[in-house]
Write a structure and sequence with these properties.
- The structure is a single chain.
- The protein is built from 10 helices and 8 strands.
- By secondary structure, the protein is an alpha/beta fold.
- An 8-stranded mixed beta sheet has the order 1-2-4-3-5-6-7-8, with helices on both faces.
- A hairpin with a 2-residue loop joins β1 and β2.
Length: about 280
């Protein structure tokens, strides 16, 4: 997919803007603003800022949709104290969406973002039309409370081997996974100007606390979520074990499931061309 022909911007050069929602100034970027239909709001993963989105995924989705990405409160260029629970992050996201004047949106949540999306749709079901949740799991899901341990282990592995930890956290150690990881990390560097601020240690610790709370939380009644949901992951996710993805698809009554082979947490980035095509078809219904 190519970016919308009506916009001169791509993910490499789209400007970062801010919008006030209460006392918080949220940093955000948007593409495909001239595209019709429901805006797609993207919810990012643990320890991530705007520059952690895969350009192929964002540009691909923005070919047909207005796509909006933003930094969570206290993360990257957004002001305020970082939130320490999924519920807080969901309320912040709702405030951000309403500050943009949007009455209804589609949601694309990756990893922690998929957990935030589940909270948003339960808090304000009328605000959401459709959801795409990838590399994620439900509250109380298997292994989610241990994400911090896996994260710190792979951060150490990255430091020892002089590699980005995402090579271990997001991708398998097979030849295909290693190659996909290297290609993904190169794509993240394509934007060279106007880059976002890295997450702080305090914000990372707050997010890890939120993940522990989410992992230890009592399971929610997901049968109440009647919205169409596209659920996707790799077959070998170490961060949020893939079993959670199957669990989500079974418990969400109007869902469809995509599992990519020989891939991990970042499967939708490894298989970005297929994922974007599936996501666009899903959103167009």
């Amino acid at each position: 997919m190519t970016p919308s022909l009506t916009s001169p911007h791509t993910w490499k050069n789209v400007p970062t803007r801010t919008v006030a929602a209460g006392a918080v100034q949220f940093a955000y970027r948007e593409l495909g603003t001239d595209n019709p239909g429901t805006a797609l709001v993207c919810l990012i993963h643990l320890a991530a800022v705007l520059d952690n989105w895969d350009p192929r995924v964002i540009d691909g989705l923005a070919a047909r949709h207005r796509v909006i990405t933003f930094d969570n409160r206290g993360v990257g260029a957004s002001s305020g104290a970082p939130a320490a629970s999924m519920e807080e992050m969901a309320r912040d996201a709702i405030s951000f969406i309403k500050a943009l004047g949007l009455k209804q949106v589609d949601l694309f949540g990756f990893s922690m973002g998929g957990m935030i999306a589940q909270e948003i749709v339960q808090m304000e079901p009328l605000l959401v039309r459709r959801m795409i949740i990838t590399g994620t799991g439900p509250a109380g899901g298997e292994g989610i409370s241990k994400v911090a341990r896996v994260t710190y282990l792979d951060m150490l592995r990255g430091w020892v081997t002089f590699q980005d930890p995402k090579q271990f956290l997001f991708f398998t150690r097979t030849p295909a996974g290693i190659r996909a990881g290297k290609e993904f990390l190169l794509r993240l560097k394509e934007r060279t100007e106007g880059r976002d601020q890295a997450i702080t240690v305090a914000a990372l610790q707050a997010q890890l606390k939120a993940l522990r709370l989410w992992g230890n939380k009592a399971p929610a009644d997901l049968s109440k979520i009647r919205h169409p949901v596209l659920v996707a992951n790799g077959d070998s996710d170490r961060m949020v074990p893939s079993k959670n993805t199957h669990d989500l698809a079974q418990r969400l009554p109007n869902s469809e499931l995509v599992i990519y082979p020989d891939s991990g947490h970042g499967a939708v980035f490894q298989f970005h061309a297929d994922f974007v095509a599936r996501a666009l078809a899903f959103l167009a219904r």
